[in-house]
Design goal:
The protein is an alpha+beta fold. The chain has 11 helices and 17 strands. Helices cover 25% and strands 25% of the residues. The strands form 4 sheets. It has a 7-stranded mixed β-sheet with strand order 3-2-1-4-5-7-6. The longest helix has 18 residues. It starts with a helix and ends in a 20-residue tail after the last strand. The model has no long low-confidence stretch (mean pLDDT 92). The structure holds S-adenosylmethionine. The site of S-adenosylmethionine has 25 residues, from helix 1, helix 4 and strand 2.
């Protein structure tokens, strides 16, 4: 299918769904009883996202929010409530029927929120050529849309263009654990179902980093569907457009606390647990963003963490036989490589098969935010106990 054909078929599909109120796409976990207090039923019944607008948890009064592929406007209207009447929400969508529903309901939502006028605006446009000014947005949200865009890298570049320096995105989307085969890519029904257009996790996150975003990491993820061995996951990701850095000033040092034994940041610097590393201003800015705060100590003097230091964290595997049960782990940031204490090497976005012992390690609180764990087996695997030996059949 050509890009034009994909776009036309996706738009037709969503126009039809919007006019019939048909249920589509993925399960979400909205608090509908809360949304019903100010969002009309006409909007709620055509909610086609794959996540709740987790990005809105960080939104502040008066901010400007952009929703890419706003559909009937559900997330825009929740953003409108959260930012208050001094803030602004712009929804972009390519489908007229969606825009008509969102525009018709904007004054009703504003009235229910007690605002003097709507602070939401719905513009017709494509995700890869957005009718939005450069550097004008504080927060980008998007809910199950970018997988539908034929050229995701162009969308990521557009997102970077419209964000203010210091701005951020939090988007939910469908990704896959491996390359989607051509016979699925050319299946228009599966495009409309948010499957065929999915990128592999590593390409999705890599495309965002190539566009300029930093500290890209997962907020949450759930397994969605598996078709012919390709596993589709619903993920919510965040990242930042960091402002330009000024002069270095005094030398700074970063010490990795753990739980990883080594990691590499998005600028290519490697860190070993407990060993201080001098860092330049750009790295200091990166490591001071929220997702790194639990991983590093940063300061003007080098801090070495020995094994007795309570700030040093290591999670050792149990010394018991393990079992292979079909589990895989995907490192989802904010680092690009990492190693655990069982010497597994993880590369961001690349699935690694893990045994029961490693599942136990990676589901501990310190590791959990950095991984998506899913199963490739379609039926339950009991598995036989395997003894671990260096170079042997297990860890
Ligand atoms: C799965 S629905 C999600 C709608 C909304 N975000 C929600 O959570 O209900 C996808 C929406 O994105 C729009 N869309 C798909 N591809 C697009 C693109 N390339 N540019 C702009 N809008 C797009 C569709 O028209 C549709 O309204």
């Amino acid at each position: 299918m050509s890009i034009k054909e994909i776009t036309e078929q996706v738009s037709e599909r969503y126009a039809k769904a919007a006019s019939t109120g048909k249920q589509m796409c993925c399960p979400t976990s909205y608090d509908m009883s809360h949304l019903k207090t100010f969002i009309p039923e006409e909007v709620l019944k055509i909610s086609y996202g794959c996540g709740t607008p987790a990005g809105l948890e960080t939104v502040e009064t008066g901010e400007t929010v952009l929703d890419i592929g706003s559909g009937g406007g559900i997330d825009c209207f929740e953003a409108s409530r959260l930012i208050g009447p001094s803030g602004r929400v712009i929804g972009i969508d390519m489908t007229d029927t969606m825009l008509e529903i969102a525009r018709r309901n904007a004054p009703l939502v504003a009235a229910r929120l007690g605002y003097p006028r709507p602070n939401t605006e719905f513009r017709k446009g494509m995700a890869d050529a957005m009718p939005v000014e450069d550097a004008s947005i504080d927060l980008i949200i998007s809910n199950c849309v970018i997988n539908l865009a034929p050229d995701k890298r162009k969308v990521f570049r557009e997102m970077y263009r419209v964000l203010k320096p210091g701005g951020r995105f939090t988007i939910s989307d469908i990704v896959s654990d491996q390359v989607v085969p051509q016979y699925m890519v050319h299946d228009s029904a599966k495009w409309g179902d948010c499957l065929s257009g999915s990128l592999q996790v590593q390409d999705y996150i890599g495309g965002m980093v190539d566009a300029g975003f930093r500290a890209v990491h997962q907020i949450k993820s759930t397994a969605w569907q598996s078709i012919d061995g390709v596993h589709f996951l619903s993920v919510t990701l965040t990242g930042y457009k960091l402002p330009a850095v000024g002069d270095q000033g005094a030398t700074l040092y970063a010490t990795l606390c753990g739980p990883f034994s080594t990691v590499t940041d998005e600028l290519g610097q490697q860190y070993r647990r407990g060993v201080p590393q001098s860092i330049d201003a750009e790295r200091a800015q990166l490591l001071r963003t929220a997702p790194f705060q639990s991983l590093f100590l940063i300061g003007p003097t080098p801090i070495t963490l020995d094994s007795a230091d309570p700030r040093r964290r290591a999670i050792l595997p149990e010394q018991t036989p393990c079992i292979w049960q079909g589990a895989y782990a995907i490192l989802t940031g904010p680092v690009i490589t990492a190693e655990d204490d069982d010497h597994h090497q993880y590369y961001r976005g690349v699935p690694v098969e893990i045994c029961s012992k490693t599942v136990h390690v990676l589901t501990q609180d310190a590791y959990r935010p950095h991984f998506t764990i899913y199963h490739r087996n379609s039926t339950l695997v009991e598995g036989e106990a395997v003894s671990c030996a260096p170079g042997g059949s297990c860890c």
